[in-house]
Amino acid sequence: MNSKLTYYIEKDDADTKIREYLKNKLNLSTRFIKKAAIEKRITVNGCAVKMNYVLRSGNKVEIDTFRDENQNIIPEKMDISAAYEDQDLIVVNKPAGIVVHPTRSYPEGTLANGLLYYFKEKGEKCIVRLVSRLDMDTSGLILVAKNQFSHMSLARDMKLDTFQKGYLAVVRGNLQEKAGTIDLPIYRTEEDIRRIIDSRGQRSITHYEVIESFEKGDLIRLQLETGRTHQIRVHLSSIGHPILGDTLYGGEDNTIIGRQALHAYRLSFPHPRTNEIIKIEIDLPKDIEDLIKRLR
Predict the structure, then answer these.
(1) Is the pLDDT of residue 193 over 90?
(2) Does a structural domain hold residue 279?
(3) What per-residue confidence (pLDDT) applies to 159?
(4) Is 135 noted as a catalytic residue in this protein?
(5) Shared-domain flag, residues 151 and 168
(6) Residue 106 belongs to domain spanning
(7) pLDDT of residue 2
(8) Is 153 exposed, middle or buried (0-12, 13-18, 19+ CB in 10 A)?
(9) What is d(CA 261, CA 242) in angstroms, rounded to the nearest whole number?
(10) Whose CA is closest to 214, among 102, 143, 292?
(11) Distance CA 198, CA 189 (A)
(12) How big is the chain by its Cα radius of gyration, in Å?
């Protein structure tokens, strides 16, 4: 596995300090550059250089993305379903009922515990760097970086139009508008984990489209323009169409499915190493499929 990024300096970039080249030309963060320089993982023609080094035409610049790192998480054997994977990242299809990262309430049995075991079994010395997250009872695609470079790049590119997260949800009732945008600020109260619609909150934008209507609900497709905690659940509840099974925001009886009927089914993003647009799409899980069959 080649962990190095290689660039050859052209005439237009000659006589530029390597720090400026890395930051302005390659769009690397100051934090990444500093750490890689200290660890001598940035070389010119095979030699480590200081960040005030002036580049010359034809110079070969290499950046080693590998770092031998440890994480204070216990590896646990777990079934990991990878929808996409390469040396820089992995996209996992997370089932409902699994917490993404250890917390005080869930110190073990999380996706991060399983991923560390998965990496160890494959002989990959990397830690879990979450780029996206999902609630415990939301299923679907989660993007995880395998090194500092890919994490920095993916986190930076989340603001681009080419970085898209698509969801499917089954909601209570039928929406009047078959397509639209919910643009309402979301605020976290101090009392509990619930978020509310409040002018003190951050601007939050959710686009939706009705795919299929039933007598007692709709199957809708959603795309996030912002990524606030519980955003989809709060927004849909605020317009009177909570997700079926959502006990926190809809007062729903979750015996109908056992969790909120929300699934992250699509992910599109520029690859950190090649800038190629990676598009991944997965099917609905069985419990949501069964719910739809009952509603039909």
Answers:
(1) no
(2) no
(3) 87
(4) yes
(5) no
(6) 66-156
(7) 75
(8) buried
(9) 10
(10) 292
(11) 10
(12) 22
Give rounded-to-5 percent helix, strand, coil for the chain.
Answer: 20, 30, 50
Mean per-residue pLDDT over the chain, rounded: 94
Contacts of 169 (CB under 8 A, 6+ apart): 219, 220, 222, 232, 236, 243, 260, 261, 262, 263
Say if residue 54's pLDDT is above 90: yes
- Same domain for 145 and 75, yes or no, is yes
The answer to whether 181 and 207 have CB atoms below 8 angstroms apart is: yes
What dihedral do alpha carbons 250, 255, 259, 262 form, nearest 10°? -70
> Distance between alpha carbon 250 and the CA centroid of its chain, in Å?
25
Residue whose entry in the numeric block shows the structure tokens 């962990």: 3
CA 26 – CA 29 distance, rounded (Å): 9
Query: So what's the pLDDT on residue 253?
Result: 66
Alpha-carbon span 137 to 257, nearest angstrom: 11
Q: What is the C-alpha to C-alpha distance for residues 68 and 129, in angstroms, rounded to an integer? A: 14
**Given 12, 13, 79, 135, which residue is catalytic?**
135
pLDDT at 199: 94
User: Which tokens go with 113?
Assistant: 């515990």
What is the total count of domains within the chain? Answer: 3
Query: DSSP class of residue 104?
Result: S
% residues pLDDT > 90 (the chain): 86
Distance from C-alpha of 220 to C-alpha of 222, rounded to nearest angstrom: 6
Task: Write out pLDDT tens, residues 222-270.
Answer: 999 988 999 999 999 999 999 999 999 987 666 789 999 999 999 999 9
